[in-house]
Write a structure and sequence with these properties.
The protein is mostly helical. The chain is built from 34 helices and 4 strands. It has 5 domains: about 70 residues, 434 Repressor (Amino-terminal Domain) (Orthogonal Bundle); about 140 residues, no CATH class; about 110 residues, no CATH class; about 110 residues, no CATH class; about 100 residues, no CATH class. The strands form 2 sheets. The chain has a two-stranded parallel ribbon with strand order 1-2. The termini are far apart.
């Protein structure tokens, strides 16, 4: 003990380590399962830990036993590096010169190759010297690496070339060519994986990024733009957008020029392509041309809006209106003007009411499903009063106002040449017939479940030569709006009712013996559900009869026959009538029947 005191204080070392951890003497004592007095004696050098404590104390503080006893930190560990790692770490070209090509397939003691260490240490001189001696083209054509797809070696080489801006090397292996055989069966290298590296690695230059993005497909540029947006990288968003504008302006201009050349001739098939052609110029046969453009997806345009790039989103949407390259999914990538206006208002501090209004409109037409999502009856009434719910309603407004210019613009934008001719001649009969036929074509998919009778009538008339007049269409639309408001009101009422009258509520009242309250409230809940979900009308008795008829049909296939349910529900109604109307005879329900009613009715309206 005396020897330790002369050379080193174990107690002070323990005290120092304890304070570093932020522990009290009591906390350390609990961890070592000794008394706090023992810790105090150790730290004051009045006593020392027993030998068996040293391994536990050393492990607890993350030090060696030798450090506890001597206070001397261990000497720095000597790290032995392989030759390939040393040359990359020191960026020593001389060491590199002694390494032959076999190092690509031979791994060192750590299982690494020179390629791994080039990436790890960012060895500029070694990279330059390596590709000067072994060009990328040679590596890709070498037997060790030719596997028909991008393999482990190829990926390492590509990554090194990208982060070192080796455009010439990449061009030599056809990395920018869409038909390079060794580039993963011709799909090129610039997948989202490489886009992320290009956009996030600090070494990649602006010039290199521009070279890459100019040769990406439309889908790849979409992915790259989304990566830049998600990283909140304004510079890269701006860069990619400039490239998109450059490509689209060239493609649109080339198409417009070619369309003028072929105007009046038999050939009118001038199409866009989202896969780049050579130098983005028009190519093809005498009757087919392709023009490279970038059509941003609706989700990408929406992301631009969400991130606050309003001006870019508006321009991208305008490009998409011109391009709209997929005839089978016409307009799928075009956002409504209301979405863009809402984003502008939100950014510029517009009122919540304005933004809310825009959220339920699309191209000026009320979207009923969006309107119902607001859960605001007063707002719904205002919207249906001031905005159309069908395109035909807009046509009728133009027709009455004689707004022929609006009609003509619509006809041209939607390629309706017949309508354009009618409007030019101001042929009101033909325009009215167009309005009537437009409504008949869409009316079969236009309505509420509770509006089936009216729709059936209209569908029946569609089969004949019936042509609804403008007045009849207006009556139909007004009735439809009234039905929407009525159903919306019932829906909100139902939601409030089932929120208050839950299974727990009824079970609680049953336990208290409040059976009459349970009966009355069950009927209130059921009535709200029958109005909202089943669209029944009339008094409670007639609605319940309509509902119960569903269980009274003998249909073995549908298994609808169930005499018990309507019988018990009608007993519930009669019991309720006896409570509400004291002059009527009260029907008595058993406890089991009342429990059945609770389970059945609370199972509805979900």
């Amino acid at each position: 003990m005396g020897i330790f005191l002369k050379k080193h204080s174990i107690g002070k070392t323990i005290s120092k380590l304890r304070k570093t951890k932020g522990w009290t003497q009591l906390e350390l004592a609990e961890k070592l399962q000794v008394s706090n007095k023992a810790i105090s004696k150790w730290e004051k050098d009045l006593a020392f830990p027993s030998v068996e404590f040293f391994p536990t104390i050393a492990e607890l503080f993350g030090v060696s036993i030798d450090y506890l006893m001597t206070g001397k930190a261990p000497e720095t560990e000597i790290i032995v590096m392989s030759k390939v790692e040393l040359c990359a770490k020191n960026d020593d070209v001389k060491l590199f010169g002694t390494i032959d090509y076999e190092v690509l397939k031979n791994k060192d003691e750590s299982g690494k190759t020179i390629l791994d260490y080039m990436l790890k240490y960012d060895s500029k001189k070694v990279v330059d010297a390596f590709f000067e001696k072994y060009p990328a083209k040679y590596i890709f054509e070498n037997n060790y690496m030719r596997t028909g797809c991008i393999n482990w070696y190829s990926e390492k080489v590509l990554e090194i070339l990208i982060i070192n801006n080796k455009i010439d090397e990449l061009e030599s292996i056809g990395a920018f060519s869409r038909d390079a055989n060794h580039m993963d069966n011709g799909s090129g290298i610039f997948s989202p994986q490489w886009s992320k590296l290009i956009l996030t690695h600090p070494n990649v230059s602006k010039e290199f990024k521009m070279r890459c993005f100019r040769t990406m497909t439309g889908n790849e540029i979409n992915s790259a733009l989304c990566i830049a947006l998600n990283n909140n990288n304004n510079k890269d968003v701006s860069l990619i957008w400039d490239i998109i504008c450059e490509i689209n302006n060239r493609g649109i201009k080339a198409k417009q020029k070619k369309e003028k050349e072929v105007a009046g001739r038999y050939m009118t098939s001038v199409q866009y392509s989202t896969t780049p052609c050579k130098e983005h110029e028009a190519i093809g046969t005498s009757d087919y041309y392709k023009y490279f453009v970038v059509e941003l997806s609706a989700s990408t345009v929406q992301t631009l809006l969400d991130k606050g790039y309003i001006d870019i989103a508006k321009k991208a949407n305008d490009y998409n209106k011109i391009i709209d390259s997929n005839p089978r999914k016409r307009g799928q990538n075009i956002l409504s003007e209301e979405k863009i206006q809402a984003a502008e208002l939100k950014k510029n501090g517009g009122s919540s009411e304005q933004i809310k209004t825009l959220s339920v409109l699309k191209d000026g037409i009320v979207q009923i499903d969006k309107l119902l999502e607001t859960k605001d009856l007063k707002f719904a009434k205002s919207i249906l009063k001031n905005y159309p719910i069908h395109r035909v309603e807009t046509f009728i407004s133009w027709f009455k106002k004689k707004a022929w210019k609006d009609f003509f613009t619509y006809a041209i934008d939607n390629n309706k040449t017949d309508l354009a001719g009618f409007v030019t001649k101001k042929d009101t009969k033909a325009i009215e017939a167009f309005i009537s036929e437009s409504f008949k074509k869409t009316a079969s998919n236009f309505g509420y479940p509770s509006f089936d009778g009216k729709l059936f009538e209209l569908r029946t008339k569609r089969i004949t030569s019936y042509k609804p007049t403008i007045s009849e269409i207006e009556d139909y639309l007004d009735a439809y709006k009234e039905q929407v408001i009525s159903d919306f009101s019932y829906q909100l009422e139902k939601e409030k009712t089932i929120k208050d009258l839950t299974t727990d509520f009824f079970v609680g009242e049953m336990k208290k013996g409040n059976f009459d309250i349970v009966v009355v409230k069950l009927c209130v809940r059921l009535e709200a559900i029958l109005k909202s979900d089943f669209h029944y009308t009339g008094d409670f008795s007639s609605m319940l009869n309509s509902y119960c008829s569903r269980f009274e049909t003998r249909d073995d296939e549908a298994n609808n026959y169930d005499p018990y349910t309507p019988n018990v529900l009608n007993k519930l109604r009669m019991h309720r009538n006896g409570i509400v109307h004291s002059d009527k005879k009260k029907e008595t329900l058993s406890i089991q029947e009342l429990e059945f009613c609770i389970n059945h009715i609370c199972g509805l309206g979900g």
